[in-house]
Structures are given as C-alpha cells and as structure tokens.
Specification:
This protein is an alpha/beta fold. It contains 35 helices and 24 strands. Helix 23 crosses helix 30. The longest helix is centred in the N-terminal third of the chain and has 30 residues, at 48-77.
Amino acid sequence: VESSIPEHMREAWKKFSPKGFTTKDEFESEAVKHIETTLARSLFNCDELAAYSGTALAFRDRLIIDWNKTQQRQSFADQKRLYYLSLEFLMGRALDNAMLNVGLKNVAKDGLADLGFRIEDIIAQEHDAALGNGGLGRLAACFLDSMATLNYAAWGYGLRYRYGIFKQEIQDGYQVEIPDYWLDFNPWEFPRHDVSVDVQFYGWVNKYTNDEGKQIVSWQDGEIVTATAYDVPVPGYGTPTVNNLRLWSSKASSGEFDFAKFNSGEYESAVADEQRAETISAVLYPNDNLERGKELRLKQQYFWCAASLHDIVRRFKKSKRKWSEFSDQVAIQLNDTHPTLAIVELQRILVDMEGLGWDEAWTIVTSTFGYTNHTVLPEALEKWSVPLIQNLLPRHLQIIYEINLQFLQSVEKRFPKDRDLLGRVSIIEESQPKMVRMAYLAIIGSHKVNGVAELHSDLIKTTIFKDFVKVYGPDKFTNVTNGITPRRWLHQANPRLSELIASKIGSYEFLKDLTLLNKLEPFVDDKEFKKEWAEIKYANKVRLAQHIQTTKGYSVNPKALFDIQVKRIHEYKRQQLNIFGVIHRYMAIKSMSPEERKKLVPRVSVFGGKAAPGYWMAKTIIHLINKVGEVVNKDPDVGDLLKVVFLEDYNVSKAEIIVPASDISEHISTAGTEASGTSNMKFVLNGGMIIGTLDGANIEITREIGEQNIFLFGNLSEDVEDLRHHHFYGDYKVNPELVKVFDCIKKGTFGDEGAFGALISGIVEHGDYYLVSDDFNSYCQTQDLIDEAYKDQDAWVTKSITSVARMGFFTSDRCINEYADTIWNIEPLDVAEEKEVRART
Ligand code: KOT
C-alpha cells in the first residue's frame, strides 16, 4: 500500500496510532473526554443525549481503527469485491449493534452506570437510520451485517437521503406523515469531500468521426450535479472486519453554482440551481411495492448508479489491470431493478469513455452484474417512459435500444418462427408512450437472476419471466431464500433468550453458526429450561405492555395471547383480513353469556405499519383498525378478553421490542403475492408461533420447523387465478360470516360507516382481488385452533423451543454464502492473523 510518509518517519505514526479502549476505565475516560471536549459539555449539563453522544463517539473511534485496517487489508489482498447497490438501507440504530459486535456492551454498561446512566436509556436516545421502506431495505441491512461478519470484501452503495421514511402519527384514527429529518447529529457518517463524482443530466449526443477515422460519441452540454461520498462503517460480529457503506449526497457542482451568475445579478436563479441539485438526494420515496414513474425518482436512480459506477471503475483502474479482468475483480448485485441503469452506465463508460468495442464491453458488463427480483406485483414492476429517458439521459436511451436490438436479433436467430416472442421479450413495450421494461433490461444485462424464496423463484420462472427461461434456459434463474441477522434479531433484541440458549448449548457460537440451535432440541423436555423459556417470553410481553402503556396510555394484560401483525400496510398483506377477524371475534364475545366468556383465551391484537402517503385504501385499513380499537377497548362486555392496539410509527427499533413479545404473528398475504417476507423469520427465531398462508418463505419455514409447529390456512397459490376468474364469471357469494362483519360495520358500530365503504365494496362488488372472502372461514377456524393450542401452555412451549431449534437455515449468513458461491464467485478474506495481533495487544 502506497504512502506519502517517508519510511523512516513511520515509527512515530505507529507509536501513536490509537489502539482503542478495552476496559471500563478506558471507556469512561474516552466517553468523558468526548463529552467535555468534542461536545463542550460538563458534569453539570450532561443529559442522556449528551451521554449517548459521548458513548457513540467513543465507540466510533474504536470502529474507525478497525475500519481503516480493514480497508487497507482489502486493498492489499487485491481480491474480487462485491458491491451491493440498493436504493434502501434500513439500518436502524447503530450504537447497540456496535457495542455488541465489538464485544464491549458490558464494559459500556458498567462504565455508564459509574457515570450515572442506565445503558438502555442511552441506547434509546439514538435516532433510527430509516433509509428504507420495509423488507427490501432491511434485507440490505442484514446483508451488510453478514458480509462483514463473514469477512467478505463488500461495499454497500446507496443514497444519503436528508429525509428517511416519514414518521407516522395517528390523529383521529388517521395516519399523518411527519418528515424525518435525521441528520442533526449523526456520528456514524463520515463526509468524504475529497471523494466526489460529477453526474450529468439532459444535454444531447454528438456523434462524429475523428481524425483517425474512429467513431466518437459524446454526451454533452447537460446539467452537472456533484455526488459527494458519505461513508458509514459496518462492523461485523466478533471479527476485526469493518466494511463500508457509501452513501451519495447531491449538490450543485462548483462549475454550476456559478459566481458569474451572481455577478450578473442572477442571484435567485443561482440559488434555485443549487436547490434543484440538492433535491435529488433530499427524500426517500415512501412507496413499498409500488413504482409511480416520477422523474425525480429516475434522477435519483441515475445519480446514484453513475456515482457508484465511476467510483468502482476508478478503483479498478488503480490496479492497472486489463479490462478483460474487470469481472474477476468486481461483482455488482442489483437490489431489485432500481439500479438497472448501472448496467447501461457501465456499457457507456467502457464503450464511449474507455474506447472498448461493443461486444467486448458487453461481455464484461453481463459477467459483472447479478439481479435480485423481490416482487411479482404488477404495480411494483418498474417501467420508464421512453420520452422521459430520451430527455433526461439521451445517450443511455441509445444504448438501451442497441442492447435491445442485439438481444432481439439473437432471439430471432434461435426462434425464427416465433414473431410474438420478440414482442414479448423486447425491452421496449410498444405502448403509447413506449415504455422501457427495467426488469427485462436487468435480466439481459446480468449473468444470474434470483428470487428470494423457493415459491417466489418458481413463480418468476413460470409467470413474469417465463419467456426469458425459454431464451436463456433455466440455469440463469436461481433461488436464494432470504435470511436475517441473528445478531440484531436475536442477541440484540432478545438478550435474555440469547443468554439462555448460550447457557444450554455451551457458548454464543450459534450467533455465527445458527444451525447450532439444533442443540436445543434435546432440552425440549427439560422442565427448568421450559420454565425459564416461558418466563423470558412473559418478560418480553411485559416490556411491550409497558411500551403500550406509555405510548397509548392504556394497559393490556401481559397474560393474554399477544397476536401481532407489523409490516407495511398493503392490500396484498391483508391487514383487512386480520381486522375483519377481530370484528368477528368481537361480535362473538358480545353474543356470549358471562359463563361462556370465562372459557375464552384473552387476546391482544397488535397492529403496526405505515401506509404509502398516496395509498388511500391502505390508509382506510389503518383508520378501520383504530376505530375498532376505540370501540372494543372501552366495551365493558369485553374487558380483558380482547384489546386492539395500533402502534404508531413502526420502525426497526420498535420491531426490536415488538418481535420478542409475540405469541402469534400474522403472515397472511394472498398466496403467491409475498415474495418472501422476513419478519416471519424474526418472530419464529424469538419463540413465537405463526399464523400464515402458504406463501413466500412461510413454506420453507414450515418445512424446517414441521407442520405441527405452524398454523397454516387458506387457498394455495396455484388456485388463485381460477378463484379470481370465478369471482367475475361464476356464482360468486361472499362468505356469510364475513357478510355479518360487513353489516356490523355498516350499522356504524365503528363510527362513520361511509368511511369504510370502499373496503367492503372491493370485496362484495369489485371481485375481491386478494381473496379475503375465500380465505375468511379457514382463517377464523385456524384462529380458534390457536386459542385451543394456547390453553395447553406446556405443549405451546414445546412447539416454541422446537421451532427455534430448527431455524438455523434462516440466517442471512447462509444466504450471503449462497450468493458468494453461486453468483458473486468471491471468497472471504483471511483475518486470522489480524485476530491474533489484536489478541496480543
Ligand atoms: C418494490 C418497489 C419499491 C420499493 C420496494 C419494493 C419491494 C419490496 N419489492 N419487494 N419488496 C419486499 O422485499 C422483501 C425482501 O426480499 C421481501 O421479503 C418481501 O416479500 C417483498 O415484498
């Protein structure tokens, strides 16, 4: 590794380079130093926020040491790297995670106690990094954790949004969105003002032949926006590896923010230019599983892809290798189609800027990229209008047309008689206006395409991408079932359960090799162990009940069955099915005698999740849940038998409280619609049961934990199409029990009945696309089975322990190793030596 410091002067550097604290005293000294100097506070005005800041800065220093070394080690090793391109990284809080990963949480706990603080209160000061909508963004965060933990040389690339996902408030039962300005104090990011890329938009394409007779293409006279890098350290668990997440922030380029404009009196227009440039990275689009085709979104995508690609290419060029070796050094994974323009951009760099021939460049491009599909919902599949791209990225549109031409010619050669096929697989949809189908471009530009659970990967091969299976053969398409990091979703969220597991199986090794959980199975009949297991679940429920008390102002009984559905609000996820089931239960209770009521299992139904601000039907579902809660929770006939709670502003840090507290969680999407789901894995790993459909990863969870340990219901994905057809053309009748629920709503039981009309008519009159009525019976019956099963607490705990013991497969470590072996072709870096050095010092 090169250095500008002369050899004989490096001793001084080495002597004084910081080693980082390891003891309680050293931690306190570092934290107090930061509080008194960096923050200019003192013993007399150190509140919890200042204590958080001091603690965070102390841990940050420690991370930086390992981070710098990791980056040096990775440059030196000169191996292939993986770049994970994602528009979303839903990281949550960093401090707790950093403390656990470097193994110094107990040191900090004792140190903070000495200084007069409780570590939980300090951790709770941190603002979530919420640069994502839901499952897709959180998956990216779990992947970063696993890649660091497994010592892969891997970088994340994303956007540094000034506003993450909005904060949700409920007013009068309605969702209200509050902007999430999160950058006030963020010790976890490092601006790299020396790392920037100028990105061009608009302009025109100039093609000419130069003096040597070579075709030159230049894209010129566009608007320039500068991308500045902000780096976030990503520590692995129990390893010296600290990887990098690079987020780009936009600002007007110095050339653009023109002093000439000031001088000529165009002050306002100069400021406006500046504002416009900054707008690109200003806000995360708050839509999950929905693409709305807004120009600013496309600008975000290109801005981030171009900056990332230029950064990657710049790093490659330093190695002075031949271009043909590019894909031996670089693998790029596309998290859904959002970064598909990276394919076009790399082709442009190689052909227009580096002068490679088209075919040579295209071979490099396709061997570099892999594409992960996360959804089959038609409204989420990205399409951009040709005129929009033509205007914003004129050269890229030409390249897309050329890619398409070459592809279609190759298809025509292989399937000369199939004219229809050409139209079906064309990147360009021949509509008015013409549209670019981003998923098709991503498939054609990648060497592997994967789905995120077995059913989903089968579905994309037989439905939305079936023509491409015909063209490329089945081997280009593969499955990598999603996973979650057990560090955050077991050890951090549920420390007592993690400790109990470690005490039984002898160590915390299971956090690095989750299959070791199977060592728990021999203990399923151990009385003492089962008692502790149940006590921990109860304590976690008490904690959630306290959270409900402080945030909602009423109490729920922690002895009741906690039934939880937390995820984005979406018709396909069917929170409406859940709340209709709750109303059905409420009506049943109301009709019972006091004696009958005594036999019931008390239940708390917890909901949480955000609706996209423009998704009116999802907002109506939130409204109904809240109105049902208002009525049910104060009904004296019901008492403790049923409570309905809508938890506001569901996010990662709240999930860490909610997930460990469930008895049952709901994963009840219409079969075939939820690609994987990942919270299903989190709940089971924390000893909860699932009520679910045969959809996404539920199917593999069932296979692993056993059918007797999950409550499945509903129609199968292969029957959905016929059922939908039947709704329109058969003798369709809404389920009579559901009709009673609708009548109850229409009577005004939950206030203004008109407010919920669309929810009902969608089912009764408009074809019930999500099969709520078809599945209602089976859903309610299964809920009854759950009540019965819950009465036998001993058998319930057996199910719980057995399930946890069999969840090893769902770690994101397994998932990342599969990507590394079958798609990226990368090996972990050897850090044994580094570990030894650290152990000695
Ligand atoms: C699509 C468009 C915009 C924003 C988000 C999406 C999106 C999110 N598409 N799929 N997802 C979810 O991804 C998760 C991780 O793979 C899956 O577990 C989940 O089923 C998808 O809905």
